[in-house]
Amino acid sequence: MTEFFSALALAIVIEGLVYAAFPEQMKKMLAQLLATPASTIRAVALACAAAGLVLLWFLRG
Questions:
Q1: Does residue 46 contact residue 39 with C-beta atoms inside 8 Å?
Q2: Neighbours of 18 (CB within 10 A)
Q3: Are 18 and 26 in contact (CB under 8 A)?
Q4: Is the pTM of this model over 0.90?
C-alpha cells in the first residue's frame, strides 16, 4: 500500500510541476479538452491506462 501512495504522490508532484512550468499552455489544453467529445476522452484515457499497465507489468514482471 505504501508503493501505491508513493506512486500517487509522485503523479501529483509531476502534474504540479507541469502546471507551474507551463500555466498558459495548460489553460489552453484544458479549454480544448472541454470541447472534446466524452467518447474521445474516454478512449484516450483507457489507452493511457492500458499503456501504464503494460509498462508496469514489464517493470515489475
A1: no
A2: 13
A3: yes
A4: no
Q: What's at 56, amino acid-wise?
A: L
Domain boundaries, the chain: 24-61
Output Rg (C-alpha) for the chain, integer angstroms: 15
User: What angle, rounded to 10 degrees, do the helices at 23-34 and 2-21 form?
Assistant: 100
Q: pLDDT tens-digit profile of 16-60?
A: 999 999 999 999 999 999 999 999 999 999 999 999 999 989 998
pLDDT of residue 61: 83
Longest dimension (CA), the chain: 39
